[in-house]
Amino acid sequence: MTYGNVKLNGNQPKRKRRKLRKSFVISASLFLITFTLLLVFLFFPTTARKLKKIGYSPEAIEIIKQDKIANTLIDGNYFSENLQSAILSKNYDLKYLDLYLIQDKTTEDDTLLYDKLIAKGYSTNELILLYSSLTFKEMTPLLVFDKVKTVDFYINDVSDHRITNNAQNFFELSGSYIEYYKETEVSVSIDRNALMVNKHYYIDENFIPNDLVTLSIQYAASDRQLQREAADALQTMCDALQSETGLRMYASSAYRSYQSQVEIYNGYVATKGQEAADLVAARPGFSEHQTGLTVDMTPVGSSMGEFGDSEQFKWMLENSYKYGWILRYPEGKTTITGYDFEAWHYRYLGVDLATKVHNSGLTYDEYYELYLK
Ligand SMILES: [Zn+2]
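Above: query sequence and zinc ion SMILES. Below: predicted holo structure tokens.
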């Protein structure tokens, strides 16, 4: 027993010490592990924490993780309220990232214009410059022009000619960088009423509308022709003008054949020279009159040139689109349309399209490039 006691007494403190050492090791290890985890957590934050730090809300972070775009956003440190709301709408595309970052709000029109300008050959850097300097309607003319060499020049031209407090957003560009008739292509009809003819799109020498009808002399000078649908719409419009105001107007010019345009254009060139002729008359093949969808209106008792000063013109500005007609060469848009303001020249597009163009506030050239091409 004594021996055993000695043995027992001798072993007990050793065990206790071992136990103590063991628990110390365990606690230290636990502490170290916790400390390391804490360090990892602090210095290597999770994706969600990183996104939160940039500015994203928990709802946006959920979508970002699902769409697997976290790394792109984190690496570039990309955040704007506009980008976040685009992500939250779930209707976004990171190819428009630049727009989401520059703009306060990005609409479908903005992204559509962006795509069209990219297709026209503008670089993303040029687009960043354009979108950060100009409004939507200040950029749409670029769709009509051949690609401008330096966007800086265009931006300066717009800023120099901007007219503020102007509901119609008129700005007459210097256009010194534009060369009309330089790049041209034959117009392809997407819809018979929508056919585009301007200084870029031409129609063939042999193009003759197949349903031309002669207008009654109540609505036109003698032997004037239009496509049937346009002819009916012209009569309805003239009747509406008369019943609402008591005033009358008629088409002094309507369909013109390729050959008659040759004569008109050459006549202007002979008297004014080519540059001045190009502002008032279309080159053969480039005249809208050849479509059979265009008229030049004259107030009864006055001349075509005075149409812009007439009550008939005021009525037309407010009402022509309701009958399918638009003012084709408006004031302040010469650079875009390629023609001086022509108060008398109207184009038939059909009620639906004419209403859309009217409401857009764009010239038909811009509207066509943006929405119909
Ligand atoms: Zn005309």
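Residues 253, 289, 294, 296, 345 surround zinc ion (CB under 6 Å).
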